[in-house]
Predict the 3D structure of the following.
Amino acid sequence: MTAGLEHYLVVSAILFCLGLLGVILRRNLLIIYMSLELMLNAANLAFVALSRFNNNLDGQIMVFFIITVAAAEVAVGLALIVALYRKRQTAHVEDLTLMKL
Amino acid sequence: MNYFELLTLAMPETILVIAALAVLAADLLVMREEPVRHRFVVAAAISCVGCCAGLFWMFNIEQHASVLNGMLVVDPLTRLMKAALLALTVFTVLVSVERDFTAHVGEYCALILLATIGMMFLVSSEELLMIFLSLELTSLSLYILAAFNKRELKSAEAALKYFLFGGTAAAFALYGLSLIYGLSGATNLREIAKALSGQALDPLLICAIVMTVIGFGFKVAAVPFHLWAPDAYQGAPTPSAAFIASGSKVASFFIFAKVMMLGFAGVEGSAVWRGMISGWVPAIALLAALSMIFGNLAAIAQKNVKRLLAYSAIAHAGYALLGVLTDNAQGVASLVYYVITYALTVLGAFGVVAVVEEFSGDSQFGNFAGLARRAPCLAFCMMIFMLSLAGIPPLAGFFGKFYLFAAAVGSESTNLGLLWLVILAVAMSAVSLYYYLQVLKQIYVAEAPASASTARPSLFTQGVVAVLAAAVVVLGCAPNLLLGRLLEAIKVAGLY
């Protein structure tokens, strides 16, 4: 059996859901960032697969840009963690409680 | 298509990039030893000159082109949007000049300019890759701007919440876009619409629509994706919050409408009462209804003016979404008129909040007590902003709502199908009057506490806020200044 488009899409959907679950359930900011990356990479996998089966290269070009943007996003995110950690000595979402409804 | 042609088309953005680099260079190389206030004035001056140069270029060299498969579209409509964004940037920078939330003024102004560049590319693109990239450029700059006050604990927290929600939203939008690309094989919005229009509404397409709506719903802070907004507005330095609430809202709403109307033309469905057909319109109708109800009701309970403005922003997002789901030229025109006037109003309101914060530490209701005696000019401007947000004629907020609601009712004129949403919107606007008047009651009726500072706001800030208030009044009294141009531009741009 060869892997068809649907296999790739199912894998990418699973990755996306795992990432989303991680973002929602995990409490450590670094792990949440990793889960965010997983969601972006799920989109990357979908783009590459769809590009291959659509027979055009636009999707693969998208992926290069998305990888770059993801790196930039993590850089900003880590900077924010450092800013938080300097003030509060914590990297857990339970401690982000200064502002509430 | 050669590079020189591309450069002239992207000249306003290029000018802004140069201005951002010039701000950084001037601040970090030349002005190192100067006091912060002087550095801020110089950085702001360079930013404003850059923005004005961009405006000057756009209005003197009439261009009309769509290059690189729609990555850069230059026509009267995008020109108008860019002009509005540049004006909002100038006002944001002017409102920030006298604040002292940071010593890194060069980076601050440069980031504002970078965010503006992102927004400008965002409004002038009809291509998925470019939309994603410029959206990220805007968002990343805004996350940093929200964290800019390093002395304040809340600032980093606000930025982190904004970042986490924004990052998730970006992932959702991206996954949605990847499915759209897969279904249509194209990355240009118009080509996507062509490829999609014949297709049945299969599960994958519904998935793509829902994910895109979720992604952009986060950006415009529509319920249930609004959770970041109150915290980000409250914790971020006030000028940054003003920028998040004004400029980025204008750009996000415009691109949201464009993606939906251009990219998903043909799978609209319908939100008519008792006659819903699945598609993207009912999804947005749901967001709009929830945002209007929840935003207005939650705002009533607020005791902090910045949080109140955040919840009112959520409610206003609900009204503005009516313009998106109206899905015709009149809808786009009223949507753009509404968000631009809303952005001017909220920017002015944040300007007043910034002054009050400077006097008394934060923006709790109590700190506004007796503002009318201490700063009559600012208090009067705040009254104009609040009444405009509530939608009292003859201010711009009233006409914005009027055109939006008229467009929504008119779009299904045979059976008045969207009337249920409009009735809901009108009822909720009546609710909103209550909490806006609460703010005014503090300003005009409540006595100032004995401990209140007697400092007077500077003439400069008063002047900037007064100009914004004047703009709100003028656009309200003569809406055709903007609306007429918009309708013409939409016709030329071929959006419909």
Notes: The first helix of chain B runs from residue 3 to 9. The first strand of chain B starts at residue 65 and ends at 67. Strands of chain B lie at 65-67, 72-74.
